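Work package 3, deliverable 3.1, input record:
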Amino acid sequence: MVYDVIVIGGGHAGCEGALAASRLGCRTLMLTIKYEDIALMPCNPSLGGPGKGQLIRELDALGGEMARNIDQEYMQMRLLNRGKGPAVRALRAQADLAGYQRRMRRVVRSQADLEVAEGKVTDLYGGPPWIVETADGARYEGRCVIVATGTHLRAEIHRGDERFAPEGSSDLTTALERLGLRTIRLKTGTSPRVDGRTIDYSKMQIQPGEDLREGFSFDGELPRKRQAPCYLTYTTEATEALVLENLNRASLFSGAIVGVGPRYCPSIEIKMHRFAGRRQQVFIEPLGWQTPTVYLAGVSTSLPREIQEKLLATIPGLEKARITAFGYAIEYDSLEWGQLGSTLQIKDRDGLFFAGQINGTSGYEEAAVQGLIAGINAAAKVKGEEPLILGRDEAYIGVLIDDLVTKELDEPYRMLTARVEYRLSLRQDNADWRLMEVGHRRGLIDGERLARMQRRWEMVWAAKEHLEEAAVSPRQEVQEILTAAGTSPLAEPATLAEILRRQDVDYGLIVKLGGRPLPPEIAALVEVEVKYAGYLAKEKKAVERFRRLEGMMLPENWDYASITGLSQEAKEKLSRARPRSLGQAARIGGVSPADMSVLMVALHRERGMKS
Amino acid sequence: MGVGDTIAAVATPPGEGGIGIIRVSGPDSIQIVERIFHGKKPLSQGRNREMQYGLIKDGEGQAIDEVLAVVMGAPRSYTREDVVEIHCHGGMAPLRRILELVLAGGARLAEPGEFTKRAFLNGRLDLSQAEAVMDVIRAHSDRGLQLAIDQLRGTLGRRVTALRGDLLGVLAELEARLDFPEEDIPLADRERTARILKECAARIADLLAGFKGGRALREGVRTVIVGRPNVGKSTLLNTLLGEDRAIVTSIPGTTRDVIEEVILIAGVPVRLVDTAGIRQGLDEAERLGVERSRQQAARADLILLVIDGSVPLEEEDWLLMGEAAGREAIVLINKGDLPQRTLPEDVKAHLPCAPLLKVSLKEGWGLDELKKTIYDQVVGQGLEGVMVANLRHAKALEEALAAVKGAAEALDRGLSDELICVDVRAALTALGKITGESVDGDLLDEIFSRFCLGK
Ligand SMILES: Cc1cc2nc3c(=O)[nH]c(=O)nc-3n(C[C@H](O)[C@H](O)[C@H](O)COP(=O)(O)OP(=O)(O)OC[C@H]3O[C@@H](n4cnc5c(N)ncnc54)[C@H](O)[C@@H]3O)c2cc1C
Ligand SMILES: Nc1nc2c(ncn2[C@@H]2O[C@H](COP(=O)(O)OP(=O)(O)OP(=O)(O)O)[C@@H](O)[C@H]2O)c(=O)[nH]1
Ligand SMILES: [Mg+2]
């Protein structure tokens, strides 16, 4: 039989892709090397944080699974950036890894229209339909294929002079090359795991979880749970001396590795080498309720085993720690820039989608959202619907994918809030308002969830309107309330919104002045919308400007080389990237304002000739 | 297609007679010019395509120039939009001032080749002419680019780069804390950040003051005459000026102090600065004079290096040639009426890029050639472009200033970091319009080179 969608890979990208496609009614097959790989977190068992937290919220609003899964299976939950504004506040969770994987496996295996099978894909060809062959001789046919193989393509693990290939997929790389696809080498690394019972926690700082009401999912309240603490300790001078002494034994420095690693996730070797004389943080993160093993975040390393052991001995609390799995660096293939389109389909390869780390990103959340979008777009292709492309002005997801399409990566890509132009508007607290309707239209959000979202925001807008209209005068009792709250009295009548805009006033005080009492999560939203109204209005203007060029679509197979007046560099870059719109073209490095003018003229001629 | 706003630019820079044209195109063009044009009747009530005589006045009612203005109503104009042309004859300075007024009135400075682009997009030129339009855009922008690059080599470039560096540092600190809240980054010292921001604001304001009204155009292109004593520097000033302003004697070391005078060359003001002759081993007063000469030379837009051709080159000549290398400079070998002991080739070998002229100030030959060379050096190479670049830069600096002030104010009000980032980022984007750099890549570089982040 011919599947509508075949997903290769059962990681975070694969799971979301397979779930989205099958939930949209496509007959879907998900292939994974092993069942145990499903929703695996090969690095630290934590989700969220700045940038990534926003991604999970957006994924939830579009009907993905990750948010619900972590809300059920967390061991610890915290809200980061509490002291800063709401746009950059972010949830971060420690997962019970086994529980997380167990639940996700259950979800995918009980999903209607979704078949899950073990099998290592060794060949991929045709298209469409695409033929997928596995090592054990099975052969499948699919209208669409989503490649979500993570770091597995031609992977090579390095540790000191040890070098070995994990259960790899070099056959699949070869198949991709036969399809004419080009790859680059990237690298990442991971820290040792140790037996938590051999750690002396008394020498460390404890980091407990927080009792929060809202989790990642907009679906109801966060279940209350017993939480496990993390711990914090630091490297010492002895650590630095040891690492620097053995620097040439690390694969990364001995020249064994050519791939480029992420700067935001440096190995301990790089930290000591580049930032000498500084102690570094080491976080102890639990891996699960059922296992004594803990993860040491902050000491990602490719040093030989015996040095890793000595290294831990220099860190307070880890002197006697027994390593259960050594750290390593891993090099792998990822897709070269210029081949991926904004729908996550490979350009000119009808029905062949790529999602996750294979696209050059790093991180579970980054992988998951790509899987979701690839799943939605594969389904759209099968059903003959419009693809879903989110703009940079609509979602972090939009920024992420647009960056993958327009920017040539020189390191694994991680979501950062700093990459997002309209950060104040794209908040984690309003992801539902921004995207749930899209999820509903696509068919991944049911009417009930949508209605709940709408009720929530109707309350917010009504309250905001009320605050903007309700005025108070500088009566004595008003002045007393204000002074008692530590803010200055009124000089003239003011609206409640004006008062709320003050830095030192919160909604609680507004209620005392006659504002309507609201549930705390609604009050928080109102506060944001009112306090930042000025900045939000500015962003809205910028977004309008941004949209003008985004709306001017470029012909899909335009021959840029033949356009006179374009600079050589612009010709080359545009021919490779083949942007969708003038706006996207402008973001490609090497395309100048003059090139943009030329493009506009050429576009006009193109249209004129057609009509 | 982006068509819709009103654009303006110098269409023709002043030629020999000093007449230059400013062209304004777009829906608000008539209204914008009408507000500054004072003729017999309001501009909009004149006949289409009829030249109207009047004065351009600024907001304070100060007259800038006598002009002829002509309205070409849509669609019977080059761009098929309402177009107004202002013909003025006061030279570069008023031309620029008028353009500034038009921009202040709501027009936007046209992009390279934009009038032609509009003509095309509005159907004035047919599709077959698209190629030609694209060529025009390319050519204009290449020239603009070269000018921009030239300009950035100078002090402006250095100062903007330094500013950008400081603001990037501020932004990196704020952003790093937002994206890596669990890291050990020392807490932002708000007072220090506020101080840096205020300092940056002051520096931008300072730069901007230099731009206002176009220093070079109002004060004249700073042209400093340097040379050894007795080579004829003061004679040169007097000759170009047409009057005996500086004292001329045959005694070396006559000029002790700096003398400045403005002359017009084809409508472009040139500020001539005569200096004391450069030599070594002097008394205190003379040494001071020499020191001032050096300072003047350092500030010059253009250096006129005078060499006495009747004697062999001396050590000071070599020193001066060394200083002039890499700057805008013209070398004059004077006293061409006397037997020559210095060969032009010797000088050329040392200063290959600077134009070299032989003159005799005493007999008065070589002077027209000199004026033309000065004009070419400062004007011919595109003062129009320089002016436009200046205007763009000034606009960008104004934006940057407003944004930095906004950030400082937000900081004062105790707003949180991500809001301060908004304005700092806007300031960097504005400065990027001058240097042609974008914020994003540089920001991440800055963050990761400053802080050890990530687990
Ligand atoms: C060692 C290491 C360290 C990391 N460190 C960090 C970090 O510090 N910070 C961070 O944010 N992220 C880190 N990551 C990245 C993060 O783990 C990934 O980005 C994320 O898990 C990628 O998800 P994915 O779905 O794209 O791929 P994966 O989760 O890798 O899933 C790949 C799936 O594809 C399947 N598969 C592969 N080949 C085949 C085949 N031929 N046939 C069938 N199935 C196949 C596998 O069985 C698996 O199910 C690290 C990853 C690794 C491996
Ligand atoms: N023969 C000849 N003499 C000239 C010429 N130009 C200037 N002189 C004479 O050279 C002498 C010095 O002229 P100045 O103009 O005072 O020289 P200066 O460079 O200003 O000298 P200081 O001010 O002393 O540095 C005067 O006697 C001039 O008349 C020329 O072209 N030919
Ligand atoms: Mg003199």
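The longest strand of chain A covers residues 139-147.
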